[in-house]
Each structure stands twice: as C-alpha cells, then as structure tokens.
Amino acid sequence: MFFGRPKKRSLRVFFxxxxxxxxxxxxxxxxxxxxxxxxxxVLGGDIAGKGLVPIRRENGNLVARxxxxxxxxPRAEEERLRAEINRMGFYSVLSDAEDxxxxxxxxxxxxxxxxxxxxxxxxxxxxxxxxxLAPSVRCIITPGNDDPKAIDPVLKAAGRIESPEAxxxxxxxxxxxxxxxxxxxxxxxxxxxxxxxxxRRLEKILEGAPVGRKMVxxxxxxxxxxxxxxxxxxxPQLRPVIRGGxxxxxxxxxxxxxxxxxxxxxxxxxxxxxxxxxAAQKIGSTMCLNPGSDYAADVLRGAIVDxxxxxxxxxxxxTTG
Amino acid sequence: xxxxxxxxxGKAAAGQGLFTRQSSGLVRELGVPAAxxxxxxxxxVVNTFINFNAGLVSFNQADMTLPLLLGAAIWLVxxxxxxxxxxxxxxxxxxxxxxxxxxxxxLGAMAGISICIAFTYILAANANFTAAxxxxxxxxxxxxxxxxxxxxxxxxxxxxxxxxxxxVVMLLVVGAVSLVSIRRLAQVILALVGIQLLAFLVLGWLLxxxxxxxxxxxxxxxxxxxxxFNDILAAAQKNQIPLGxxxxxxxxxxxxxxxxxxxxxxxxxxxxxxxxxxxxxLYASVISIxxxxxxxxxxxxxxxxxxxxxxxxxxxxxxxxxxxxYGKITSLQSSAGGLGYGLILSGDPxxxxxxxxxxxxxxxxxxxxxVAVVTRVMFALAFDRLLPISLAKIxxxxxxxxxxxxxxxxxxxxxxxxxxxVNLSNIVANLALFVALIIVAGGVAATALxxxxxxxxxRPGQTELARVxxxxxxxxxxxxxxxxxxxxxxLIVTHPEVFGSFTLTSVGALVIVLxxxxxxxxxxxxxxLSRSSIDLRLAMRELPPE
Lengths: 321, 546
Description:
The complex is a heterodimer.
Chain A: E1 9-16, H1 23-35, E2 40-43, E3 51-58, E4 61-66, E5 69-74, H2 78-87, E6 90-95, H3 97-105, H4 107-132, E7 138-141, H5 151-157, E8 168-170, E9 174-179, H6 195-207, E10 214-219, E11 230-232, E12 242-243, E13 246-247, E14 249-251, H7 255-264, E15 268-270, E16 279-283, E17 286-290, E18 301-308, E19 313-320
Parallel strand pairs in A: 1-2, 2-7, 3-6, 9-10, 10-15, 15-17
Antiparallel strand pairs in A: 1-18, 3-4, 4-5, 8-9, 11-14, 12-13, 16-17, 18-19
Chain B: E1 10-13, E2 18-21, H1 32-43, H2 47-58, H3 65-88, H4 95-102, H5 105-144, H6 148-153, H7 160-178, H8 182-209, H9 212-223, H10 228-238, H11 247-252, H12 254-261, H13 277-306, H14 309-321, H15 323-329, H16 337-345, H17 349-383, H18 402-421, H19 431-452, E3 467-468, E4 471-472, H20 473-494, H21 496-499, H22 504-531
Antiparallel strand pairs in B: 1-2, 3-4
C-alpha cells in the first residue's frame, strides 16, 4: 500500500481563478510556479477588481476612505496608500472633488475610470510576470465574465503571458480549450450568452481540437448541477432568497457546458465563476474542478493538476496559499 | 459569480468613498460581535463563580486578585502573537495551520490531531459537568417556583445513568444547534453569553446591595442554622485550615487562572470565517479579555467585601476536606461558590432562575464554541488530506463542515458515556498541561514566523520587518508568549497535586495523543505518494505573496 508506483508526471498545471484585482493573490499566483513545481500556470478569468477608491489631494496630503474610514497620508506615501487599497482588491485613482462628483453622476465617466484602472493593473501584472517567472514556466491568463472585453488585447499583447481565449492551446501532453463566456447572470456582463448560444460557441472552439489528443477545458462557467456551481439564489433586487428561514442555494452553472463535457469527455475541466462552490466532481471520465476563491482575504485558492506523458490525468490537489 | 453590468456598472457607495461594481462571492461572515461571542463562550464566563472556589480549595491562602490580573496579562501578550499568525495565515485551523506552514507539516499534524482529540474530550467533560450540576439548577428553580417537585427532582438525577443521559441529550442539542450557519450559531452563543453576563450582574447587584451582616443572616436562614457563618469559620480553624493572604500562594495560582481564561483567544480557530481577520480578532480578543477582567475581578472583590475572604477560604477548604463537618452546618453546596452566595442572597424568583440556569448556559455555550473550534481544525486537517476529505465538505446551504460536526458530536457522546461510567481522571490528568502546551506551540510559531516565512507578513513595498533590538516585532511577541507559557508549564509540572499527577497512564495518554498527528501525517503522505505524483506536503505550502 505504501510503496506503489504512480504514473510518471509529465505536466503539472496550477490553476487559480477569480482573483478580482487582488495584487497579492496575483503575486502568489506567480510564486505558485516555484512553490508547487508547476510547468504551466493558468488563471481562469475574473481578474478585474470590483472597487475604485478615489484619492483626493488636500492641503498637501492625500485623503481617501479605506475600509470606510478616512485616511490622510503625506504625498510622499502615495505608493504605500495605493498598495494598501489594492491589497483589498480595489483600484485607486487620484482625483479631485469635482472629478469624484462627476463619477457619482456620470456613469460613462465612472466606467472609463474603472476601465483605465483595470487595464493599468493588468499591464503591471504582465510586467511582473515577465520579471518573476522562470523561462521554462508558461503563464496562461484567460478572461472571465467579470472582465471587460477591453482587457483581451492587453493580455494578447503581453510578451510573457499567453491568452488563448476561445482557442486551443498546446500544453504538451494535452491541449487546452479556453472560454470565459457564461450563461446570463443578474448583472448582464459582456460575456453572457443564452445556453444555446453558449453551447454553439463552445462547440466551435472544440472543433479546432486535434483529433486523438487528450484535452483540458478551461471554461470559466462550471457545468450545471455538478456541485461546482452552487450559489445563493437572488431575487430581482439581488437580495438572497430565503426559504424556510435559510438562504436558498441553487445550481447556477451552465447546461451547455455540462453537455459539451459529456460529449467530448476532456481529461479535466477547470472552472471558476462561483467563488463559494469549491468542489471536484467527475462527469463521465472528466474530472471537473472549481478551486473557489477567497481573494478578499489575500488567500489564493488553487488546484494542482498532474498529467502523464500520454495526456491522461493522474491526480489533483486543492491548495490554499 | 462576480460580474459587471452592461457598462461596467459602477456605482457609488454613498459616503464610503468607494465606487463598486455589483458582484457576489464568498463572504466572511463573522464580525467583531460574533467573534467576541465565540471567544467568551470558549471561556465559560460564569464558571468562574465555581472556579474561584476550586482555586481556594487548591491554593492555601490564595487571593485571586493577582492571578486574575497576571492571567489576563499573559493572554494579552499571547493575543499579539496570534494576531501576527492570523494576519499571515488567515484561515481556519489554529495551531495546526500555523505550525504546518511555518515550521513543519509533522509538527502541525501533532498540534492538529491532538487538539481534535483533547477538545472533543472537553466537549464531553463539559456535558458531564452540566449533568453533575443539574441538581443545583433544579434546587434553584425549585426555590424560584416554590415547587418541591422540582427541588425533589434534584435527588433523582445524580446516578451515573442520569449523568450519561443528560450528557447525551446536551450533546445532541449542541450538535443540532451547530448545524446552522456560523453566523446564526454565533448569535445563539452570544445570547447564552448574555445570560451569563446577566447572572454576573445579578450576583454583583446582590453583593452590592447586601451587607456582610445580611449575608451572615441569609446563610443562617438558608441553612436553618443560626450561627452557620461562625461555625464554618470555627470548623475551619479546628481543621487547621490556613486563612489570610500569601503572595507566594497567589503567584502559584497564576497558572490556574491562566487556564481559567483559556479560550479567550479562540476566535483564531475560525480565522477562515472572520471578516478582516487580523482586526476582527484583535478587537474581539481585547473586548473579551477586558470584559472578563472587569466582571471577574469586580465580582471577586465584591465577594471579598460582602462574604469575606476568610469565610470563602474556610468554606471551600472545609467542604472539600471535611464534607461531613461542613454538611452538618449547612446544605449550601460548597463547590457552588459565588453562585451559592447569590442563591441565598436572592429574594426574588428571577434572580434564582438566572443563577440556576447560568452554569448550564455557560456549558452549552462552551460546547457550541468548542464544536465550532474543533470542526474547523478537522476541516483544515481534512482539506490537507490528513483526515478523510469528506470532513472538509462544506454544506452549500449553511456553509459549515456538516460531516465534521457530526463526527465531533458522535465522538463527544462516546466520550461522555464513557466518562459517566468509567473514571477517566487518571488518563486525562495532564489535560491542563496539554492546554498550556498549545499556547507554547502558538508562541513558537509566532517566534519563528519572521525568520521562516517573512514573506507572509511583509506588506507590499516593504523590504524589512519592524525590529526592536534587532529582533522582528512578531518574534518578540512570540518569544514573550513562549516564555510565559513555559513558566505556566513549569508551574503545572511542579504542582501535580493541583494540575494533575504524572502517572504512567496519564503521561502515556498524553504521548499517544501527541504522537498520533505525526504518525497520521507520515501514513497519509506515504499512501498518497504510492498512488499519486503530488506530494501531500504541497498542500501545506503557503505561497509567498511578494
């Protein structure tokens, strides 16, 4: 029992997802290559942050509200203040009272501010990857539904990062198909499609897969009813639905993703989207994984997945780093 | 499931200085009140009514003022050490995750498995204690409702079978209540802590509003013995019970009071569910320690004033060493301590009810808190594959480790039944030492943190940790905690008559409990290596963020 011989590992993938602008989690993601001896890092979408903290210049100081509390620092400490804000997964923007007021009343202006902040951060991350990753490590980042489409060209243009969104990518023993599209959410994001349309988009991606090669699918949306997709049911006002005194928990994954997995039976399915639904589940012969996300606590949840030389899946291990 | 609207969907959070995009996601549920509730419940606030008495039995001429203050100071020091640990590794599992990530997986496993075993036993011991205390509760309730039927029932629940049955029922209740979400559980715990604090206030009020002579008269009336107070003092003198205050005895009682505060920092065990862990933990711990010092010291000083230290020492010691002589003077249970004083001074039924239900409330709260604690350690062990992975399964509906709760409660019930019928005192004699060793483990982990994993506590852009005298600040807190905890360990080891004797059985049990973790770790790792290419140690690697 103790001295068996497992299949020899040919490829180790470290998969994480839904870090939502957390600089600390991204740095941990890069460090995972070394710590977990991974050959390929895959970040499966929802990398954009959700909050924007305006920093005002006031009497030679910089003033902001951090975690709801007013903070004033000398201008010399701008970098420290912005780092502290980013640690919470928020962006910071230097502005004045007039600009803040405009953000409050002008949706388009606020959207532009968000977009600038998101792109600026991703460009910074791309540079960091260039600086920190060993040459032998591949780093793949694909978008999720929470990421504006404006980030796609930024990721594609990065020298050290690959972003094979809606493409097939060769990882050696296996090929990987990636898609950040999801079924409709209450928030009407840019990458949402009805089940039928999503199914067609996924099939189109998989049409390009070489015949006879083992495959991994990196679909941001988890398969419906797989245990990887449980989330609180929300009412039209986005409040949790309470049934029998408790929040109603329902599967919110995609039936199209499930059908595609059943039909094509990839070796492994890498999913995210639902932070609170960390789970592993087999659908047919496919091992589907959602490592979940706890980025708000600076914790990088992930999954190490090993493949043999013939592309077969050996084992996985969820990590909390 | 985080998402944006068709545009980026930004909106201003009024007055927060923050624009947000709508999203949902994993929510850490426990704020400062809930974490404070878990910390206070782990201590069993009201037990001190009784524990003061136990301290007076164990330590001749002890006064609890100094131990109460020094005990709190030691926990304050430890609090800062744990704060750094929690900020570095903000997740469930306590010493297991700290030691496994900072020092070695085997050492972490030693802490994790032994905590699971010891804390599950404590669940059972608390249930047994509640069962043993039921007669006092029924007496108090009988007096409150003027019901001889209730009072008489007290005599029917003292058998081993009754104690086992009450313990099992209590643990089943604990298990059922523990199956709600951690937030709801914290509300239940807070309510139970509230009852205990109310009982303290009632006792405080009774002690303030009654003079020493009132107490003497009330004791006489309760005991149907006109000179009960003086007769107890005389009997103590006859038994050569030493009275008064000795600083040496008070210092020796410090470990006793340190153990009394044990649990006041336990919010770190649910670190994975705390909002803004470092800050929430710090606030909850400071509030808990502060509240306990005020309440406990206040009631102690009031008891000294109204009842008198000489009488408390005489009653405690006489009740323990010569129960026959004591029983001839009064029927007031000597081990009831402050609760007993409250009972005889209270004239209204509400006070009697509160005093009667204070201890069961405390034990229920302790067990609920300990189930939360022990199951989070089990969760962390299972997440790292040292225990069956099913114990790490989280309920989708209530976000709690359901399987771990069931296992903890079932093992607790087995322990409770065993303890009701078999004398386990020799086997668990070194439990106090084990509890002190846990603090040592936390102190060592905090001391090593800046040296072994400085990356976990460095802020972005920071290249050097704050130092005092060349030593990183977290290490200083860790070293201070370790030193104080080692002193407590030394006092425990050198006073076996108070803290538990060292026999082959008790030491053997302690060694087995401590070695179980490393053995399980080695077996689990070897088993995994035999069928997988992924070493278990990878699960215990903390990623450097910088």
